[in-house]
Amino acid sequence: MPHLSASRREALNFYLCISPWLAGLLIFVLGPMLVSLGISFTRWDLLSPPRFVGLRNYERMLGDPLFWQSLKVTAIYTMLYVPTELVGGLALALLMNQRVPGIAVFRTIFYLPSVISGVAFVVVWMWIFHPEAGLLNLALAQVGIDGPRWLTDPHTALSALWMMSLWGLGRAAVIYLAGLKGVPKELHEAAIIDGANAWQAFRHVTIPLITPTIFFNLVLSLIATFQTFTSAFVATNGGPLDSTLFFVLYLYRQAFERFSMGYAAALAWVLLLIILALTLLVVRSSDRWVYYEGARR
Amino acid sequence: MQRPLLQHASFAILLTTLASILAACSGAANSPPPAPVERTVVVERTVVVAQTVEVPREVVVTPTAAPQAADAKIVLRVGTGDSGEGLTPHLTIIEQFEKENPDIQVQLEPVGSGDYYARILTQIAAGDPPDILQIGDDAVPNFVSKGAFVDLAPFIASNENPLDTGIYLPGVLEPGQWEGKQYLLPKDFSPLAVYYNKKLFDQYKIPYPTDGWTWDDFLQTAQALTKDTNGDGKTDVWGVQLPGPWTTGFEYWVAAAGGRLISEDGTTFTGYLDSPETATAVQFYADLYHKYKVAPPPADLNAFGGGNSEFDSGKAALRLFGRWPQSGLKTNPNIDLGVVGPPVGAKRANVLFWGGFGISAISKHQDAAWRFLRYYVGAQGAEVWKDWALPTVKSVAEASGQASDPIEGVWIGELNHLAPRAYVSTPYWGATADPALRKVLEQVIIDPNTDVAAALKTAAADAQAAMADQQ
Fold first, then answer.
1. A242 vs B46, which has greater pLDDT?
2. Could you tell me how many helices (H) and strands (E) chain A has, helices first?
3. B111 in a domain, yes or no?
4. Binary contact (B300, A151; C-beta < 8 A)
């Protein structure tokens, strides 16, 4: 073995250790991504060989009403869901941060839905939303309300999916909880001694200190919401009247129902660019509102 | 002291890493990974493993791995979208065939749920599809026009293993044809019919529907059997359970109104999808829901057939559907089952749902595949299928008594009234007019005030534009 300097050896160890991840990235992520970029410039139905069509797939989106519809549905849902997850998740985390007996049990209960597989979870909710026999409408009937037809009504279907998704708030809450645990007690106590009330202490001490957590959750939530698929695929299949046609569902349909692989690949790249742009926007704005202790600029 | 410790530490990390590589490798074989590109290979393995478990008597050998000895068996692979119970007839036929043909081993490769076509398409793209593939009716034009199947004519007419195509019931060969050539042969089929619950008819003293009844009779029967039994202003017993926005089933209504959804040459929707006949059909269908209120609103627009359970629970008198749920309905204690052909509109019409088998154009064992296919879809195969679905072979249907059975005979008799399905003249039906028609049906079911003519005009224009995009 040739004599290696300590730093070379360290570098070698580093690459050896991350090699499984690196190999996975190259073979299963970057490789297919490059192939998909290539496919996006072709017309390919898997049966006949791909045919190069230049930018035609991208041009086609401009005149495709379902492309715009799926973008609209996804954007509306993102605007509904991301704020609820930020506020709701934080509220839940504050509750989970109380020092009461058995709090660990409550934390587990709130986190539990996040562990359940997406499809099982959606199927349960489909029963809850069933227009005649569903729990929700039966409950509403008890108080004299004739409940809507939820998943079979284009006006309520997207809201129903949104309500369904709130069940997963525990995931965000656990990350907030970690953030809250990192807030030093002394700062909070100092603020109270200085005459701040509980709200002021929360607003001016706790919130600034957990902005890095909020930032992290915001980015994750934004990316995940733009990729919403399971709930719409299982519960509504994009309907009724395309009112829950999420972008990724439309992409899937083009790829695996219509077998327009080229168009589907082009859609995937547009989605990547949209998510990238939004994420960059959030990252850029973070200078203004995210506070890192000891990292003054 | 410090340095060796560090080395130990990194060695331990390395070991852990290697272990995790191994873990990752073995894990990948069990769970389908997200990227479609690698999916072909991995899913293949999973299925073959599942196959070994389900059919222990079969030794699974991939064709390429088979020894090249002179007496080596030919291994045929059969792809099917059937699953669960539905695999039993396949396996029974395979077992019988292997006994009679010791030189051939048949390996069934089932893919359940909606992933079947995606799976075989990726297999074809990778150059390694099963030798025999099962395809559903509306997928035939797409697969065949792209060259996925071989023309069966030379095999059917061969001296060694000919097939008499005259053995089949009327109308069951045509769905396997494209541009006049036979590419697939029939596995099973179902037309539409109307189930009725004699219990409700007896209770309200309404005569049973009879063959040749009309849309008017249908409506009157449904109205007579729509009841608010407890006087709370809500319907408790419904006249008819309809299959919601199910487009293929809806083709019956259009054909019975005297219309068709696409021009005969398979290029044009305007003037067909938005014709007065189509509008009549859509309007009547919508009126059953909204004007006459004889049909319960769909519980799940997304479910096959509308997701309603009124007929099953004895709360609907009629149900228009295919034969698929029949065995369950026969044993359902809420139901005393009768079956009658769909009502006659301007014309008598029905539509056929169909599954069949063909031989892959890139199969390396086409002659062996034909020997099995001939058995699979011939009289011997039909003897097995008849216990699971309607047999396609006339003599089998007659010998089993199914052709003259008061229920099964109705389904078989409906074969004499088939109208061509819309997909038969174009590979693009599913990508063009089908979604447009579905949207119209959802619209009229959801919104009672839909302007049917205008909605159809939009649908025809959308479908036509989508068609232009396909060329």
1. A242
2. 15, 2
3. yes
4. yes
pTM for the whole thing?
A: 0.82
Q: Is the pLDDT of residue B52 over 70?
A: no
A16-33: pLDDT as tens digits: 999 999 999 999 999 999
**Are B437 and B340 within one domain?**
yes
A-chain residues within 8 Å CB-CB of B115?
256
Q: Give the sheet arrangement for strand B104-110, strand by strand.
A: B104-110, B74-80, B132-136, B353-359, B184-190
The Cα of B298 is separated from the nearest Cα of chain A by a number of Å equal to: 8
Residues A93 and A193 in one domain: yes
Domain count, chain B: 2
Same domain, B52 and B180: yes
Compare CB distances from A20 to B24, B124, B430 and report the shortest one's residue. Answer: B24
| % of residues, chain B, pLDDT over 70 | 85
**Bigger pLDDT: B55 vs A221:** A221
Tokens of A179: 């953030």
What domain count does chain A have? Answer: 2
Pairwise CA distance, residues B236 & B229, whole Å: 6
Mean pLDDT for chain B?
Answer: 85
Domain that holds residue A14: 1-39
The answer to whether B256 and B215 are in contact (CB under 8 A) is yes
Residues near A81 by Cβ (< 8 Å), separated by ≥ 6?
A: A162, A165, A221, A225
Q: Is the model's pLDDT at B310 over the cut of 70?
A: yes
Q: Is the pLDDT of residue B111 over 60?
A: yes
Asked whether residue A47 is domain-assigned, the answer is no
Tokens of A209: 């200190």
Query: Contacts of residue A241 in chain B, CB cutoff 8 Å?
Result: 439, 442-443, 446
- Give the closest of B35, B118, B147 to A28, CB-based: B35
Residues B346 and B359 in one domain: no
Q: Please indicate, yes or no, whether residues B384 and B300 belong to a single structural domain of this protein.
A: no
Identify residue A88 by its one-letter amino acid code: G
Domain boundary among B370, B389, B404: B404
Instruction: Kindly state whether residue A297 falls inside one of the protein's structural domains.
Output: no
CATH label of the domain that carries residue A95: 1.10.3720.10
- Summarised one tens digit per residue, pLDDT across range B263-299 is 999 999 999 999 999 999 999 999 999 999 999 998 8
Q: Are strands B238-241 and B316-321 parallel, antiparallel or unpaired?
A: parallel
Q: Provide the domain limits for residue B359.
A: 39-190+354-404
Q: Which residue in A has a C-alpha nearest to residue B301's C-alpha?
A: A152
Yes or no, beta carbons of B124 and A29 under 8 Å apart: no
Q: Are A24 and B24 inside 8 Å of each other by CB?
A: yes
Q: Which residue of A has its CA nearest to B427?
A: A258
